[in-house]
Amino acid sequence: MDIQERVNECLSCPNPRCETGCPVKNHICTFIKDLKNDDLDQAAKTLYEMNPFPELTSQLCDCDRQCQGHCVKGIKGVPVQIQSIERYIYDHRKRNVQPKEDNGRRIALVGAGVSCLSAAIRLREEGYQVDIYEKLNQIGGAIYSGIPDYRFDKSYLDNIQIDLENLGVHFFFHKTIGKDLVLQDLQKKYDRILLGIGAQVENTYGLEGDGCEAGLSLLYNLNVLKKQNEYKEKYHSAIVWGGGNVAMDCARSLKRILDEVTIVYRRSEEEMPASKREIAEAKKEGIQFAFLENIQSLKLDEKGKVIGAHCVRMELGEPDESGRRSPHVIEGSEYEIPCELVVCAIGQKVDFRIIQELTFGNTHLSSIENVYITGDAYLGPKTVAAAIHDGQLAAKEIMDSF
Ligand code: SF4
Ligand code: SF4
Q1: All domains of the chain, ordered by start, with CATH?
Q2: For ligand 2, which residues put their CB under 6 angstroms from it?
Q3: For 371-389, what is each residue's pLDDT tens digit?
């Protein structure tokens, strides 16, 4: 299907449902109309106005749940292929940001994840000086350290860095807040500070042992430290505990190096929060799924090494506060799965203790003067598109504060 056929599938709805499913608030119906009118320049203008990084969203959004999942045409048939239309615009028209004259105000961004990167673009556009401090040696935050190379080509991040440097953004790598960077020093040097430090605290729900790891740590070990051989030598089989996209990334990364990988999830496939595409790929790659099962504890040998997981079978009851049916343990259903590695991919949260006592309410401004929060640190772990949007909101709040 060529691009005109794809855009002609769209009904140009007066109240586009697709837009309610887009976390970056793209004017989807409008950029499709622009393309219907054969005006690619205008379509690009419409897209980049809301979304500075379509090269990321057009590859990383779970569009079946987001924009396309809300498209009216998907109710009885096939939704408009919005993600590929967005990609088409990116392929033919790149970002074209023209910064206004320097206004003399200096903003420090801490963390080079997508929320800070999108804030940086908006701030530079309006003439603010922007410095970004990042603890690793690469931009991208969770996209860089958490998303496996087989799923996303990291050279897109290099290109974004070049674009931002050309815009006048300065990057400082290997700078960790609370270690190499002191908040009070930044406060003296900059007019405002924006913290986009992610949601980095993981929970293993009390599971411990040699061979028990948290999901993001595993992904960091594989994606950043490239420890594939180490894992290959040490383990043959793994259980990944959880049902979100981090669990899928862990399982699919491990399946590339280990013989047996099983995902244990306490609800059914229908309730799984991971993207349908990821689940389908994982199945194709031979990953086993244990639905309606849960880990209760680990089985360790005398040296503390993991040799298995004690599990139970579950059944679903009434919906809980998340709207999903709540799982209950089936009495007497205990059993054991032998394995050498257990990866807990069951959620992350933010820990501001690395900075100091810091709180925030309904705005991005924190309890510390001139210090703002954005991205997962503000929203909790959410989508790439939500983080991009939040960075722009935080940038606007900062600019409005002068
Ligand atoms: S940003 Fe994501 S959700 Fe929004 S239109 Fe693009 S692919 Fe769809
Ligand atoms: S809901 Fe679907 S058909 Fe309607 S405007 Fe959005 S993409 Fe087009």
Answers
A1: 3-92 (1.10.1060.10), 106-200+350-400 (3.50.50.60), 202-347 (3.50.50.60)
A2: 10-13, 16-18, 28-29, 71-73, 80, 82
A3: 999 998 888 888 999 999 9
